[in-house]
């Protein structure tokens, strides 16, 4: 039998020894792991009988480990998985007749770039050079693939640093995110491959397979609304910013559902033929039906993260492989460890509904947190 456990370390902003919060003091813990455009976040409510709120401060480093242990009386964090590392945005103690508790909220280190507008002196730099500079600025270890195209000045104007990084990543065909190890990754999407060269499935979940289920509940949506039926591939060559653009479209779907276009910046599209080929390949992926799932409840699984590939079985024609767009890890000393997932059958950076508006959502959340702190 396995026993769910959490290990939470908080370290003062100025350094020093990490303090460990007892898992038995956890009333509720929710860690939300989402796609690259937004910061991962956590909300933690603790018993405050030991006056933890006197020690806890904003900007503290937080590391959260989750998983299962074999011996509930003798275990260590090495048996668990690191699912989050970031900083405390707020400390909220509360006192009432029913007891006293304290709630912590925070985000991962991508939040540092989400909150700040780009203010480095303009110079002709490549995307990888900008990524390295921003990593150095925030004490992140750069894991950056070198690029050669100079970024145009207009890209920096009136934009947050994270938005700039994500735009540059899109143009290079890269992804960009901050790992729990405080690394800024800027490069091609990484995926584990199986012996056949196919992307490896992280976990398989099933509904009433041989009378057993490891899915508590799930809802699917088979919708034509998010199909992309027109793809425009663009690239700006050299210092003169010579524009290369090619378009591929499905006229039948446009006539039936109206134009649903996606613009992709690809630094590899250095000729019209290359741009057209890229547009045609993308169109073939994006104009297929997008199937999504949401509110899939499972037992806690620290191996599953945003953008991981999972398999779902036992749901008829909705069986298949899906990419996780968001996972929420939920833990409580009284109720154990569960997860709630959402996802899509399209690779996230190819699924328009998950690439659109994520940055705007992230900025809105950051603004709400800022306003909330000013009002308190």
Structure in words:
The protein is α+β, with helices and mostly antiparallel strands and 376 residues long. It has 7 helices and 19 strands. It has helices at 111-114, 127-137, 161-172, 251-257, 272-286, 352-355, 358-375; strands spanning 3-11, 19-21, 26-34, 41-47, 61-69, 81-96, 99-108, 141-144, 175-178, 183-187, 203-206, 215-223, 230-237, 242-249, 261-265, 290-299, 309-313, 320-332, 336-344. The strands form 3 sheets. Strands 1, 2, 3, 4, 5, 6, 7, 11, 12, 16, 17, 18 and 19 form a 13-stranded mixed beta sheet that branches. A 3-stranded mixed beta sheet has the order 8-10-9, covered by helices on one side. A hairpin with a 7-residue loop joins strand 1 and strand 2. Helix 2 packs antiparallel against helix 3. It is globular. The protein starts with a strand and ends with a helix. The model is unreliable at 350-363 (pLDDT under 50).
